[in-house]
Amino acid sequence: MGRGATKVAVSIPDDLYQTIEKIRKIRRRSRSAVVQDALRHWLHAQAQSARVREYEAGYRRRPESRREVKAAEAAAVRLLSSDDW
Prior knowledge:
Distance between the termini: 49 Å
Number of helices: 3
Radius of gyration: 23 Å
Strand content: under 5%
Low-confidence stretches: none
Largest sheet: none
Mean pLDDT: 93
Structural class: mainly alpha
Helix content: over 70%
Shape: elongated
Oligomer: single chain
């Protein structure tokens, strides 16, 4: 069974339209494909931002202890001084 689609009408500034048209023609993409890609990218960025905010909030609730910081520093020194990387 195929996926449904909904048509939408949006207004964008003329300069943005011209830029998109030029690029999409070069890449042989439909307007729908370009808009779908842009929306997927935007949704992914929104989800990523939410994950970062959640991480930051967790870190503020429970920051690393001095012992954890020292352990991380020691591990970094060992890694950077080895030839394994």
